[in-house]
Amino acid sequence: MDHEERMKLAQFLTTRIVETYGEDVLFVGVYGSVARNEDKEFSDLELIVIIKKKIPNWFFIYKDIVVLIHCITYEDAVKSLSNPDDPWWFGWVGSILYCEKLYGSDDLLKKLKECVYSISGEDYREAAAKRLIWMLEFLNQIRNAYYERDLYSAISSALYFRNVAGEFVALLNETHYKSHVFRSLEEARNFKNCQSTFSN
Length: 200
What we know:
Layout: H1 3-21, E1 25-31, E2 45-51, E3 58-62, E4 65-73, H2 74-81, H3 89-97, E5 100-104, H4 106-117, H5 121-147, H6 151-172, H7 185-188
Parallel strand pairs: 2-4
Antiparallel strand pairs: 1-2, 1-5, 3-4
Helix pairs in contact: 2-4, 5-6
């Protein structure tokens, strides 16, 4: 499936969502590689739906690609975006702030962005401090796996460690990533408070 086909599918799904939930739907956007126009043949199609009342998320396969529709109420979106201590904060920031609008108000998107840009330095530092604890936890898991010769657990814990380390670097710089933290190294190179060895 190419980019144009994905966007047509995204528009079709948006129409169906609005027809089904009517005025409860406040905003629909596409995010991830499709929004960045970097999607490949088998890339996922990811939509974010901001709605008045809670509804379930949808995950399904269409023509060999995975379609993910994440639904969140406006109140929950505000709460999550305002709190970098939230374990899913980076995901919500990436999906909402860097989406391509398919339906809804630009003003609503602007208000949600303000939630992120109004986070205090102290809140960022507190969230970064907690990521340090998580880093030690995963480092200890790697150590245990090493002594037990458990390669699978070592690799799994190392991936989590890398993820949390990336989050720590962003929080230390009072910022976030435009894409998933696993793709963060290029962005981190330009951070003010980043050791050069982090991105080497």
